[in-house]
Hints:
Layout: H1 9-19, H2 26-34, H3 38-66
Amino acid sequence: VAAAVGLGPLETAVAVTAAALPTGANPFILARRYRLGEARSGATVLVATVASVFVLGLLLVQFRAALGAA
């Protein structure tokens, strides 16, 4: 997809890294405000944040190698 819209390697790395970021706190705040799905929303934020630590680490290593950084 990145190649189809003309993104270079650096721009692709930035887009993929941004997409790998965890779920924000806004869904949890809204769930709490309306008292609907608070536990599930909180658990989703927690799991996504923990998973993103590993995924982002792997992506950074891969992009660093692909972009030729030392």
